[in-house]
């Protein structure tokens, strides 16, 4: 085992990249990408989100997300609408076509999770997920430095 094999950022990136690359190749024939899936999944969970909220939830930079949403809107997967309570705010909504695409991707996403967590019992899987959420939140500590 070399030094890289003990370095957490390397191990996280290696695991994430392997999953992301394979998942992306599998959803491409459906006309989707990993980022499109993240947006659709977030809107399935809670429709009518502001771009800033969606950026935080999906971990996609606002500038990248804006271009992505433009593309998704052209494909008829999402629709921008003015917020009834705040006319300055634009909310993003999933369309019926977006829901259909999300339904086609969901079993793929579930299979990837099952494969990634093979050999982990339910408690270990939840511990891993909780640890990754904590690790992500810990990175806020770099903002001030």
Determine the structural class based on helices, strands and strand pairing. mainly alpha
Helix/strand order: HHEHHEEHH
State Rg: 17 Å
Low-confidence stretches: none
Give me the count of strands.
3
What name does the CATH topology carry? Arc Repressor Mutant, subunit A
Share of helical residues: 55-70%
Q: What profile does the largest beta sheet have? A: 3 strands, antiparallel
* Overall number of domains: 1
Second rung of CATH, namely the architecture: Orthogonal Bundle
CATH homologous superfamily designation: Winged helix-like DNA-binding domain superfamily/Winged helix DNA-binding domain
Chain-averaged pLDDT: 95
Q: First CA to last CA: what distance?
A: 32 Å
Shape, per Cα inertia axes? globular
The fraction of residues assigned to DSSP E strands is 5-15%
- Order of neighbouring strands in the sheet with most strands: 1-3-2
CATH class: Mainly Alpha
Number of helices: 6
Task: Describe the protein in words.
The chain is mostly helical. It has a single domain (3-142), classed as Orthogonal Bundle (Arc Repressor Mutant, subunit A), CATH 1.10.10.10. The chain has six helices and three strands, in the order H-H-E-H-H-E-E-H-H. The protein has helices spanning 8-27, 34-45, 51-58, 62-74, 96-116, 122-138, and strands at residues 49-50, 78-82, 90-94. The chain has a three-stranded antiparallel β-sheet. Helix 1 (8-27) crosses helix 5 and helix 2 (34-45) crosses helix 5 (96-116). The protein is globular. The mean pLDDT is 95.
């Amino acid at each position: 085992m070399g030094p890289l094999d003990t370095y957490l950022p390397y191990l996280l990136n290696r695991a994430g990249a392997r999953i992301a690359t394979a998942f992306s190749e599998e959803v491409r024939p459906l006309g989707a990408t990993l980022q499109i899936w993240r947006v659709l999944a977030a809107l399935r969970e809670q429709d009518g989100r502001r771009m800033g909220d969606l950026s935080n939830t999906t971990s996609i930079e606002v500038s990248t997300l804006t271009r992505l949403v433009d593309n998704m809107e052209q494909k008829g997967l999402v629709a921008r609408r003015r917020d009834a309570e705040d006319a300055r705010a634009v909310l993003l909504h999933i369309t019926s076509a977006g829901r259909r695409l999300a339904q086609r991707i969901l079993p793929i996403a579930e299979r990837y999770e099952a494969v990634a967590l093979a050999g982990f019992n339910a408690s270990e899987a939840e511990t891993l997920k909780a640890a990754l959420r904590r690790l992500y939140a810990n990175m806020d500590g770099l903002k001030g430095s």
